[in-house]
Each structure stands twice: as C-alpha cells, then as structure tokens.
Amino acid sequence: MLETEVRVFHEHLSEWLLVHDQEFALVGGCELLGFFPTVESALEEGARRFGLEPFLVRRVEARQPEVFIPALALDILRA
Fold first, then answer.
1. 47-64: per-residue pLDDT in tens?
2. Over 60: is that where the pLDDT of 25 sits?
3. In a domain, 79, yes or no
4. CB–CB of 36/45 below 8 Å?
5. Does any domain span residue 9?
6. DSSP of 52-78, one letter per residue?
7. pLDDT class for 45, splitting at 50, 70, 90?
C-alpha cells in the first residue's frame, strides 16, 4: 500500500527540502499534487481529489517519521 507514493516522496525529498521544509506534501500515484502549510489542509485536498482512494501526506523534513496513513490515523477504516 502506497509504495509508489512513498518512492516518489523519497526520490524528491532532497530537492523539496530546499524550498518546502516543514510543509506537507500531497502525493497521489506518481504525481506530486502540492504542498500545504498544515496536515489538515493537505488531508482535505487529498480527500477532495481522491475520496476513498489511497494518497500520501507527509511532512517535508530531514528526519522522516513512520508513514502517515490518513484512513488509519483518522479511524476511517472502522466507519
């Protein structure tokens, strides 16, 4: 799940750090869909564009935490 999106994120992280450090990247499939100032705004746009389809939201930062899966974090899968 989200292998393509995670790969795209890591392939571009070093260049994104130069301009978008601490912003949230929204990636769907092989495409970067934008950078957002808050996780909420990135999730809102991802939900608007993808509905229930998977997408990746991650903070652009040098130290990368675990992958954030919105449906799990927001407890949507049990809805």
1. 999 998 999 999 999 886
2. yes
3. no
4. yes
5. yes
6. TS--EEEE--SS--SPP-HHHHTT-TT
7. very high
- Domain hosting 66: range is 3-73
User: What whole-number distance in Å separates Cα of residue 79 and Cα of residue 76?
Assistant: 5
Q: Which two tokens stand for residue 41?
A: 């705004």
Q: What is the pLDDT of residue 29?
A: 94
Residue-level length of the chain = 79
Full-model pTM: 0.79
Task: Please answer whether residues 46 and 70 qualify as being in contact, where contact means their C-beta atoms are separated by less than 8 angstroms.
Answer: yes
Q: Which residues are CB-neighbours of 60 under 8 A, at least 6 positions away?
A: 13, 16, 17, 20, 21, 22, 23, 24, 25, 35
CB-neighbour burial class of residue 27 (10 A; exposed 0-12, middle 13-18, buried 19+): buried
Counting the structural domains of the chain, the total is 1
The answer to whether residue 78 is domain-embedded is: no
